Amino acid sequence: MVRQGDRRAGHRGVLPGGGQGSGAGQLIRRDLAAYAFLIPWTAGLLLVVAAPLGWSLYLSFTDYDLLASPRWVGLGNYLELFTDDPRFVHSVLLTGGYVLVAVPLQLGAALAAALLLVRERRGQGLYRSLFYLPSLLAASVAVSITWRAMFDYGGPVNGVLGWFGVSERSWINDPGTVLWTIIALEVWRFGAPMVIFLAGLKQIPGELYEAAALDGAGRLRTFVSVTVPLLSPIVFFNLLLGIIGAFQTFAPAQLVGDGNGGPADSTLFYALNLYQQGFDHQRMGYASAMAWLMLIALAMVAVFLFRSSRRWVHYGDNA
User: Fold this and answer.
1) Cα torsion through 235, 239, 240, 241, rounded to 10
2) How far apart are CA 208 and CA 201, in angstroms?
3) How far is CA 237 from the centre of its chain?
4) Is the peptide bond before 52 cis (omega within 30 degrees of 0)?
5) What angle, rounded to 10 degrees, do the helices at 124-137 and 191-202 form?
6) d(CA 53, CA 43)
7) By CB neighbour count within 10 A (0-12 exposed, 13-18 middle, 19+ buried), where does 289 fall?
8) Whole-angstrom distance, CA of residue 75 vs CA of residue 286
9) Which of 4, 79, 162, 196 has the highest Cβ tally under 10 A?
10) Handedness of CA 276, 279, 285, 291 (dihedral sign)
11) Contacts of 270 (CB under 8 A, 6+ apart)
């Protein structure tokens, strides 16, 4: 019969005879196995993420042209950005305006499509696939080039507008219209947020719509009082991702415009300006400073959205 003290000793990894048990060794081997599985992930985090971030932060305080060794300039790059670079200020304002227009339009199109596709009907899978397809293609170089051809002289856009008496023009070479062609491209790729909206709409209980109908609420009132509050977490998620993605718009600005931010700097998006400073002008330290300013700006936007979400995002029974 095992005594109480022997059971306690065995629980601590010590045998009744006083010898060291195998429990501690098993724990050590288990921990070592867990750490071994974490080594690839940790190495990737350090080499692919942490090290480049640290290096770019250092370069942002230097004058570096990719050929000579970095030369420390302190806050010189940041001071030049805000005091002696009008193109930087222009790219910030242009990108900010683009985000304020393109993101709400894209989310509105995604929500409208989700509302149309949420009801089961014949061929539903095909319709959803066709609506989602632009999200798989729109970020590619080929689609950006095709988009440019569509809005240039002889393109199909001018052909359709010609039926309504609109004279032919090059929409991509006009400073007043080229930005809207890029906004149209961004709105066109509403497939990803649409799928997320669809998932959110599927989670709304049908009993709430039945209760609203019994109370005499119309479609608009039901949408405002039931759908929007319960969908607010999805709106918040899509809004945050949309803003982050729009701030980093590069390929459409590079390929739909003339590649240099033209015409008349009307497509000089922040990411394109950063690329030009780093690779065209060989000012990698200056470009690193711009990259860190973008990171700080996006972090501030995220903090603002999270704090403001307490007033307009509803979860569960708080809806």
Assistant:
1) 100
2) 12
3) 10
4) no
5) 140
6) 15
7) buried
8) 10
9) 196
10) positive
11) 91, 92, 94, 95, 247, 290, 294
Residue 9, both tokens: 């000793």
Kindly report the length of the chain.
Answer: 319
93 CB burial (10 A radius; 0-12, 13-18, 19+): exposed
Burial class of residue 301 (count of CB atoms within 10 Å of its CB; 0-12, 13-18, 19+): middle
- Could you identify the residue written with the tokens 């993605």? 245
Are 164 and 158 a contacting pair, CB within 8 Å?
Answer: no
Residue written as token pair 């339009």: 105
- Summarize pLDDT for 244-261 with one digit per residue, the tens: 999 999 988 888 877 788
Residue with tokens 């052909």: 159
Q: Enumerate domains of the chain plus CATH numbers.
A: 83-318 (1.10.3720.10)
pLDDT of res. 134: 81
Q: Which residues contact 297 (CB under 8 A, 6 or more apart)?
A: 247
261-265 long-range contacts, CB within 8 A, separation 24+: 261/87, 261/91, 263/173, 263/174, 263/175, 263/178, 264/175, 265/87, 265/90, 265/94
pLDDT value for 17:
44
Q: Model pTM?
A: 0.84
Residues 6+ positions from 252 with CB-CB distance below 8 Å: 144, 147, 182, 185, 186
